[in-house]
Amino acid sequence: MSEHNETAIAELRREYVRGGLRRKDLTQEPMELFERWLKQACEAKLSDPTAMCVATVDEHGQPYQRIVLLKHFDTRSLVFYTNLGSRKAKHLAQNNQISLHFPWYQLERQVSFLGKAERLSSTEVIKYFHSRPRDSQIAAWASQQSSRISARGILEGKFLELKQKFQNGEVPLPSFWGGFKVEINSVEFWQGGANRLHDRFLYQREGGEWRIDRLAP
């Protein structure tokens, strides 16, 4: 990279002026505030407001990140679905510690979760799988996620083959497809502020209660 490009990137910055986050704005339960922010992200028509960065760690301690869509949440957990042969699922089978991050930068906001991931039951997975569009169900069969393929045509050919196979009946749930529920123990809310004086609040579970601390930006 040229020195000019490095300088140009280093000089990219803007002020965060959308407003702050004060203690009076917080809710007793973090998921109440998350639900409010998610609703506002949807109302602002952000692209993929439910998209979250999922971070896992392999057996060597190497972290990996990827974008996954949130499909459900409640007062204690968040849910996503994936191929159980995927890299993330293999990581979680060995180490179920996980981090989830919502990068709502258009609203000058971020939300980060820490927790433990547990496999969903077959009943929960089947119910969601059959709610998906039919082509998405077939695509789950066509892709051995994270495996090496020599060309896209192979994947497309497999999809068309399976579409023909399942054309007259229900698409069955693949044995290698499932979901995870992340039981949360920490949530951080970040709101951009002027002069880089951002507002950060950390919720941490202590027994049956949540401790709330303001963090320096």
Give a verbal description of the structure.
It is built from 6 helices and 9 strands; from the N terminus they run ααββββαββαααβββ. With 217 residues, the chain is of the alpha+beta class. It has a domain at 19-130 and 177-214: Roll (Pnp Oxidase, Chain A), CATH 2.30.110. β7 and β8 form a beta hairpin. α5 (134-142) packs across α6 (152-165). 23% of the residues are buried. The model has no long low-confidence stretch (mean pLDDT 91).
Strand and helix layout:
Layout: H1 3-10, H2 30-43, E1 51-57, E2 63-69, E3 72-73, E4 77-83, H3 87-94, E5 97-102, E6 109-119, H4 122-129, H5 134-142, H6 152-165, E7 177-191, E8 199-206, E9 209-215
Helix pairs in contact: 5-6
Poorly predicted runs: none
> Under the CATH scheme, which architecture of the domain at 19-130 and 177-214 would be assigned?
Roll
Q: Helix and strand string, N-terminal first?
A: HHEEEEHEEHHHEEE
Please tally the helical runs, counting DSSP H or I stretches of 4 or more residues.
6
Look at the structure and give the CATH class of the domain at 19-130 and 177-214: Mainly Beta
* Beta-strand percent range: 25-35%
Q: Span between N and C termini?
A: 30 Å
- Label the overall shape: globular
Number of strand segments: 9
Structural class based on helices, strands and sheet pairing: alpha+beta
Round the mean pLDDT to the nearest integer and report it.
Answer: 91
What CATH calls the topology of the domain at 19-130 and 177-214 is Pnp Oxidase, Chain A
Summarize the structure.
The chain is an alpha+beta fold. It has helices spanning 3-10, 30-43, 87-94, 122-129, 134-142, 152-165, and strands spanning 51-57, 63-69, 72-73, 77-83, 97-102, 109-119, 177-191, 199-206, 209-215.
